[in-house]
Amino acid sequence: MHLVLLPATAHHVVCSGGNHRAVISNELKIEKIQASVSAYLKIDLLSEDELLYIEEKEKEIRRVFMNIRQKTECETNNLHSRLMDLEEEVDDFKKNLYFKYIQKHDG
What we know:
107 residues; alpha+beta; 3 helices; flat
């Protein structure tokens, strides 16, 4: 299930795939379900350095992706690995920013 956490309300809403899984898990009183959660963070809370870091990593991801499209299949293995590493690095950075933001406001 894909959920979105709304920071202003701390509520989760179903993002994609319909809400039938959420409804049935409530009806069956299933306490835990596997979910992917997206969260929004106000961009104006980020420092210039944090924004610059994200921007530079996303540019690098686009460059690697474009290189993959231009290479032969044999040449793409290392590029795919690099692309996955970059995407994970940016995701981890954003998650850390989110939790930093939450700690400041839950204080």
